[in-house]
């Protein structure tokens, strides 16, 4: 991490272990990566540049950005000397439950825009983040969290009935599930192509078209997601590299820094020094 940068990670047990990050980056560049959860962030100062769904975005102070699970994105400073932001990471399961209660479908919500310029939603997001930081009462936190998510879904998500899924996408999604379930294993291209019932070349092409990642890159992201969970439980980087299928500790550390902006040991320390 560069001088004057910081990245603080918190969890709120009142909201089911919801993870929150507050960070300031100046020179750090996040390579292509994805998360197992949704990422809802707000820029407090500076400009955050990121690519998402094949488009580039500059997020300004007060604007929200939202990225769904397994969606590839990057991150770096836009114009100026860097950016300061805060983010929440609601689980896919939580969002599905809320989507079902609002729209009667258990599908993962799909948000139309990567960047949301809505003053009311921004105010709700910042108010919740401030309450999380100062330790408000449980009922107050729960009310603000529920209101923010409901408004996001009602105002920004696409109606599930408009989404269509082809047989080809279903086959590719079965490969995605295999890679997620077998993240520790050294799978061959033959094995996963057989799972999809298509040629190896077609598999690579179609998988990247749907998920913006090659199968191997997707598997690395799954390993990182499991690594984060193990770091929170106090596992060492050496053990995690072995547990999650990385070649060695150096390979794990390099991949983690590229995705999170801090080393595994710095990330873990934040959960055991409070």
TrEMBL record:
Keywords associated with the record: Activator, DNA-binding, Transcription, Transcription regulation
UniProt-listed Pfam families: AraC_binding, HTH_18
Origin superkingdom: Bacteria
Domain HTH araC/xylS-type: 173-270
InterPro entries the record matches: AraC-bd, AraC_XylS_family_regulators, Homeodomain-like_sf, HTH-like, HTH_AraC, Tscrpt_reg_AraC-type_HTH
Protein name: AraC family transcriptional regulator
The organism of origin for this protein: Marinomonas foliarum
């Amino acid at each position: 991490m560069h001088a004057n940068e910081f990245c603080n990670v918190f969890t709120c047990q009142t909201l089911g272990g919801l993870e929150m990050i507050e960070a300031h980056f100046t020179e750090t560049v996040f390579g292509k990566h994805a998360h197992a959860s949704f990422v809802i962030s707000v820029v407090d100062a500076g400009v955050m540049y990121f690519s998402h769904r094949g488009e580039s975005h500059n997020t300004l102070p007060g604007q929200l950005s939202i990225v769904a699970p397994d969606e590839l994105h990057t991150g770096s400073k836009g114009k100026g000397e860097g950016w300061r932001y805060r983010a929440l990471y609601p689980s896919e399961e939580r969002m599905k439950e809320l989507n079902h209660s609002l729209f009667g479908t258990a599908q993962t919500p799909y948000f139309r825009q990567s960047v949301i310029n809505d003053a009311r939603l921004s105010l709700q997001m910042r108010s919740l983040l401030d309450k999380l930081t100062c330790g408000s009462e449980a009922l107050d936190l729960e009310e603000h969290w529920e209101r923010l998510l409901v408004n996001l879904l009602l105002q920004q998500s696409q109606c599930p009935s408009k989404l269509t899924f082809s047989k080809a996408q279903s086959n590719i999604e079965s490969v995605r599930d295999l890679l997620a379930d077998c993240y520790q294993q050294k799978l061959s291209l033959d094995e996963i192509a057989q799972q999809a019932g298509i040629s190896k070349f077609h598999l690579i092409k179609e998988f990247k078209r749907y998920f913006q990642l090659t199968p191997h890159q997707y598997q690395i992201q799954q390993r990182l997601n499991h690594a984060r969970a193990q770091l929170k439980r106090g596992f060492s980087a050496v053990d995690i590299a072995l547990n999650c299928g990385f070649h060695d500790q150096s390979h794990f550390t390099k991949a983690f820094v590229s995705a999170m902006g801090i080393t595994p040991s710095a990330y873990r320390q934040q959960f055991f020094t409070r």
